[in-house]
Amino acid sequence: xxxxxxxxxxxxxxxxxxxxxxxxxxxxxxxxxxxxxxxxxxxxxxxxxxxxxxxxxxxxxxxxxxxxxxxxxxxxxxxxxxxxxxxxxxxxxxxxxxxxxxxxxxxxxxxxxxxxxxxxxxxxxxxxxxxxxxxxxxxxxxxxxxxxxxxxxxxxxxxxxxxxxxxxxxxxxxxxxxxxxxxxxxxxxxxxxxxxxxxxxxxxxxxxxxxxxxxxxxxxxxxxxxxxxxxxxxxxxxxxxxxxxxxxxxxxxxxxxxxxxxxxxxxxxxxxxxxxxxxxxxxxxxxxxxxxxxxxxxxxxxxxxxxxxxxxxxxxxxxxxxxxxxxxxxxxxxxxxxxxxxxxxxxxxxxxxxxxxxxxxxxxxxxxxxxxxxxxxxxxxxxxxxxxxxxxxxxxxxxxxxxxxxxxxxxxxxx
Length: 415
What we know:
By secondary structure, the chain is of the alpha/beta class. The protein contains 18 helices and twelve strands. The strands form two sheets. It has a nine-stranded mixed beta sheet, with helices on both faces. Helix 8 packs parallel to helix 9 and helix 11 packs across helix 12. The N terminus is likely disordered.
């Protein structure tokens, strides 16, 4: 098809002109048929539209001849019935299609040569004609350039906590948080940004949830934010779909922050895509002996901006100080000298701690962990009366406070 378009006088190497989005149901179906036709991807879609004066119907009519000229016989575009079925499936799921050029299509994503011509969107988009109301909550998230927070699926407790803190503070500063709805860092970032609204980009269809453990989180995102997919509804995510998803994650934002990543990971692939797209790449440093931080440390070695807090991200993007989050108040502690390990803390410290994180559990953990490294699984076995979620949260707080040190191999020790 490329050779044929060269013969038609289309410049394949210049940036294509902006497309006018479909304004009727029939035009939307034309777009969908063209995009789902064999051998038509996002870039070739735009070239075909440019070659046919922005008319998807004309491009569809020309496809068989273009395919024949390139040596493909008996070529048939996507049947209209198939496009109808996709449209009905997406709408049954409560989603709508956002077309390139529409008011609520993400502006930074639209600048890419391979921007998805159509995006399925599920969220608080309002009741507009084809893409919702531009001033609806989710639409504002899409039209305001955000920050992507990405990282390891098997993240450390500190990595999860850092992702949550960054997401919360960026959301409070009015910066949309974007991620890929994977387990680990992605899920932690989305969860912490729910109050402000967050954008999740998924590799499968808009009506699929992967991994299944994020079903409740997906439902929460839809209430205040938006989930995006370029795949047809019903598509189960496969390995080949994730690089396509990653380019959308980085394409939506001004900068990508890698919170935690191994030396060979999908997060580093996203970082490379971001650099190719002209986005800023930032990274959170990690312990040199932790393989989960090898990738982020490599990025820092190669020139990525170092991130210690949301303020570092905002400074890197030259956002005004007024938009930056107020400093977090530290948890109040008793003014007296800290009690030695093994003793109970003063009663009023218990009330100052976050919910479920009482001094009594900290005391028990401190008594069990000594200078000799203790396997984390063994610690869990020695406090069977405590819910695992509460124990994990308490360990996270103790790590931040310097009372517990996490070692490679799943071991814990006391500082």
